[in-house]
Amino acid sequence: MSSDAEQIVGLYERHARVWDEERGRTLFERRWLDSFERLLPSGGAILDLGCGSGEPIARHFIERGFAVTGVDTAPSLIALCQARFPGQDWHVADMRTLSLGRRFQGLVAWDSFFHLTHDDQRRMFPLFRAYAAAGAALIFTSGPSHGEAIGSFGGEPLYHASLDPAEYRALLEENGFDVVDHVAEDPECGGHTIWLAQAR
Hints:
This protein is an alpha/beta fold. It has a single domain, classed as Rossmann fold (3-Layer(aba) Sandwich). It contains 8 helices and 9 strands. A 7-stranded mixed β-sheet has the order 3-2-1-4-5-9-8, sandwiched between helices. It has a two-stranded antiparallel ribbon with strand order 6-7. Strand 6 and strand 7 form a beta hairpin. It is globular and about 40 Å long. The termini are far apart. GO terms for molecular function: methyltransferase activity.
């Protein structure tokens, strides 16, 4: 299945317009985004890893007065971000090899981090730590249990993976984050499994 994981970059580029058109804007994520925001200083800097087209999540934070740096591997999605929000900072880059040389008060990996293989997910936690300012908030989505799953988008395989919840907790702890909240398959958030943590 790891070969399917390597196809993610091209898949989102090929189907960027369709993904943008189909991405819901209702902000069913709002309760979690509000909890994340309460951990941030007013006007703080947020790093959005896998920002897509910038809607609705980056838009939500921009409209709330935060400075957003968005990263995505799909040039077409970053082009949409740049057109919609030219005052923010957008990068075509892979979160696994990103090098920005600065820290952020908030880190977001919503519906993006779970496209990485198990080992790549493990390697992300030191990177989360490297990008986190003191007391930074981190929010990401995962699966509810260890495994891999193949969905479909645009008629192509769409890879997902998850570690065991105990391993996520251990990785957060090892890298200086405390779990603030965690819900598996939250029925109030479209069945998403969400982790909210804060750097010590």
